[in-house]
Amino acid sequence: MKSVIDFLTALHDNNNREWFNAHKSEYQLALARFNSFVEELVAGIRSFDDSIGVLGIRDCTYRIYRDTRFSADKTPYKTYFSAFIAPHGKSSGYGGYYFHLSPPQGDNLLGGSFLITGVYMPEPKVLQSIREEIEDNGAAIEEAIAASDGFTLSRMNSLKRTPRGFPTGAPYDEMLRLKDLCIERAIGRDYLLADNLAGRTVEAFRSTHRFLSIVNRAVRYAYEEMM
User: Fold this and answer.
1) Distance between CA atoms of residues 78 and 75, nearest Å
2) This prediction's pTM
3) β-strand pairing of 81-85 with 152-153
4) Burial letters for 132-152: b for 16+ Cβ neighbours within 10 Å, e otherwise?
5) 114 three-class SS
6) Where are the alpha helices (DSSP H) in the chain?
7) What is the layout of strands, in order, in the sheet containing 96-101?
8) DSSP one-letter code for 70
9) Residue 99 class from Cβ within 10 Å (0-12 exposed, 13-18 middle, 19+ buried)?
């Protein structure tokens, strides 16, 4: 994965179309290496979570080109590669397993590279179902998080107050206030460059399967109700 990190580091320092076009072959090699890794990741995850089904690269990965129309930052390219492996693909609305590879100075909230399991920015009816799951089974969710390998609850996107319809001061009030339900684990350069990256990442995600099963149970219930 060193060639991918090196390319992304150089892109961060030269985020313009002229440089990118002059180094297009390096980008294509880095992308091919990353896509090969994602294929291994998908196959490994399917070995313990068959709910993801059959997924291709395009079902899991994202374009490097940034949408700058509504952003003050007009740099044209993302300086990271990422993949989201979820039932029915990255745009399904279901929770999944997210791998994010970025140099330490990359443009992301956590900085550097990380793993995330969960659901991000669910639509309102899905979020309501997830909160009801938290209210009913918060202890099981906490146990699933504790059983994961180095993951902690993400608190980046949270309301200041308990959402309407839920009692203030409930045992899982902090979790109820979250607008996403994700667990996260930072990974560094040593993790990325050690042998068997795909195998180790699959095992890390395996430890979060129980958590995601609970999350996606709530997601599935919401979508069934909306049908």
Assistant:
1) 8
2) 0.95
3) unpaired
4) bbbbebbeebbebbeebeebe
5) strand
6) 2-13, 17-22, 24-46, 57-60, 124-146, 173-176, 189-193, 197-206, 209-226
7) 81-85, 96-101, 113-119, 181-187, 152-153
8) T
9) buried
pLDDT tens for the chain, 227 residues long, are 999 999 999 999 999 999 999 999 999 999 999 999 999 999 999 999 999 999 999 999 999 999 888 888 899 999 999 999 999 999 999 999 999 999 876 444 445 899 999 999 999 999 999 999 999 999 999 999 999 999 999 998 999 999 999 988 888 999 999 999 999 999 999 999 999 999 999 999 999 999 999 999 999 999 998 87
- What is the rounded end-to-end Cα distance, in angstroms, of the chain? 43
Q: Which residue has the tokens 């060639």?
A: 3
Amino acid 225 reads E
46 exposure class (CB count in 10 Å sphere: 0-12, 13-18, 19+): middle
The 3-class secondary structure across 8-41, one letter per residue, is HHHHHHCCCHHHHHHCHHHHHHHHHHHHHHHHHH
Residue 205 one-letter amino acid: F
Is the distance from CB of 86 to CB of 95 less than 8 angstroms? yes
One CATH from 3.30.930, 1.10.10, 3.30.420, 1.10.287 for 2-226:
3.30.930
Angle at 97 (CA atoms; ends 35, 88), nearest 5 degrees: 80
Q: How many CA atoms lie within 13 A of 170 on its CB side?
A: 22
